[in-house]
Specification:
Pathway: Lipid metabolism; malonyl-CoA biosynthesis; malonyl-CoA from acetyl-CoA: step 1/1. The chain is of the alpha/beta class.
Amino acid sequence: MSWFKRKTKGITTTTEEKKDTPKGLWYKSPTGKIIDTEELEKNFYVSPEDGYHVRIGSKEYFEILFDDNKFKELDANLESKDPLKFVDTKKYPDRLKSAQEKTKLKDAVRVGVGKSKGKDLVVACMDFAFIGGSMGSVVGEKIARAADYALKKKLPLMVISKSGGARMMEAALSLMQLAKTSVKLAQLAEAKLPYISLCTDPTTGGTTASFAMLGDINISEPGALIGFAGPRVVKDTTGKDLPEGFQSAEFLLEHGFLDFITVRKELKNKVNQYIDLIMNQPLRA
């Protein structure tokens, strides 16, 4: 059966259920804790009782990382095309238009450059709300251009991943972005400029298989789902039972795939401490 006809079997999740930042006066975390949404926002969208990190997008991450939320957005108007004339339950251009209207974004990644604790930083941040943060040609191109900008200006680069993987509507063109972004990050390494990869919930598929795991340091938020394929696919492929929570950030840290896990309120400090150390600059308070 075609993947886009599976909803007849009841295997589907409505767009309304795929929420990121909460709406309304109150937010209920998966562990049942209830918090006022204004208080949640002040606490970096982290539930204070159980530490649950609510999914957020580029808008919120830029507010956290850039001083006074001041930054310049790079390549803001890049948009995806439809060279394959792809159609599933709707035409790809119609799906893009719908996502753009809903999210007010052009595609699944935004790139900003600004001051973070007084020093320039380039940040590429993915938005899961835009077609599941899927990696298409525009995502790969914007990350590649972000690396080029960092190379030209001799600045550190940070990529915040939040993605379901490659964008199937672009097929092989999407998969080509794995190689393109990896080459650009290799150039950044040759220039001895730091690249920080932050994996957030979820980081999966081709994103994990490329830039998300190529950082000079790979870090994550608590409880993030990080992996390539889903548990069922991995089990069917390996023929083995899987350890509980084997795709959680904590499991990956224990087995050496991550350098450290940081809570969101400490993210700005942790990132800048690393940049200061690697670039041999005085530590900033």
